[in-house]
Amino acid sequence: MRRARRRALLALCGLAFLVVLVLAAFRPGSSPVVGIGTPASASRLLPAGPPRPLVVATHGALQIQLPVNERNVTAIGYHGAGDDALPLDPLGRQANEGLFSRIFHRIFGGGGGGIAYYQLGGGDGPSTGSLNVGAAPDTDVYSPVDGTVVGLRDYILDGKSYGSVIDIQPSDEPSVVVSVTHLRADPALTVGAPVTSRTTKIGTIIDFSAVERLALARYTQDAGNHVAISVRTATTVPLR
Q1: Mean pLDDT by 10 residues, the chain (240 residues)
Q2: Quick check: pTM over 0.85?
Q3: CB of 131 within 8 A of CB of 228?
Q4: What is the Cα–Cα distance from 81 to 128, expressed in whole angstroms?
Q5: SS3 letters for the chain?
Q6: What pairing do the DSSP bridges indicate for beta strands 147-157 and 201-205?
Q7: How many CA atoms does the CB half-sphere of 72 hold within 13 Å?
Q8: How far apart (Å, rounded) are the C-alpha atoms in residues 152 and 88?
Q9: Distance of alpha carbon 25 from alpha carbon 37, whole angstroms
């Protein structure tokens, strides 16, 4: 009888501990620095000006600044962008991490804080090869790095042109090229032009939702349009 009671007590304690873990995993964390999955308000659709200084990802010493004013951001996500894309290191916390990872981070710490991002899956190469910063079409996009425009060409998909590809060689990391897509290049932008992060407007986001299904839409209240950023070794990028 005592053994049965002891087993029942241990089982009850184990269940209580499990409940605590689950509650800890789903307890609201710190508020994200940028909006995620929230409906686009009237103010979000208005021009908001340049973004404030906010590094969202890195690759070694290279820092990728938020290219869109945080007031306009709907969500941030990462996916593969080909075998030649270099992996980015996201800053912040993964909002859709697995249950066990969430429990572990709640109890033992880690997992980041502040900026919330999603792992979108799909694509070839590193799972963080492409950084997608969601915002409505026609939202202004600013350079994510200091550097020089070394390539400006059409983005071709199935033989049709959809906006531009802007290649920027960072001043601090000239061995790589930062490519920005899913946007319409600013008419004043030319190859050879210097750009400054968060200050130089390089284009506006285009509506890509009619071209392909956008994975970011799973976490936003819109079609998931975004500006996409990837980093590649300079020798692998076809510049012109």
Answers
A1: 58 50 45 50 62 96 97 96 96 79 44 81 94 97 98 93 97 96 97 97 96 93 96 80
A2: no
A3: yes
A4: 8
A5: CHHHHHHHHHHHHHHHHHHHHHHHHHCCCCCCCCCCCCCCCCCCCCCCCCCCCCEEEEECCEEEECCCCHHHCCCEEEECCCCCECCCEECCEECCCCHHHHHHHHHHCCCCCCCEEEECCCCCCCCCCEEEEECCCCCEEECCCCEEEEEEEEEEECCEEEEEEEEEEECCCCCEEEEEEEEEECCCCCCCCEECCCCCEEEEECCCCCCCCCHHHHHCCCCCCEEEEEEEEHHHCCCC
A6: unpaired
A7: 27
A8: 23
A9: 20
Q: Say which residue the tokens 């005592």 belong to.
A: 2
Residue pointed to by tokens 């190859």: 191
Residues present in the chain in total: 240
Name the token pair of 34: 């940028």
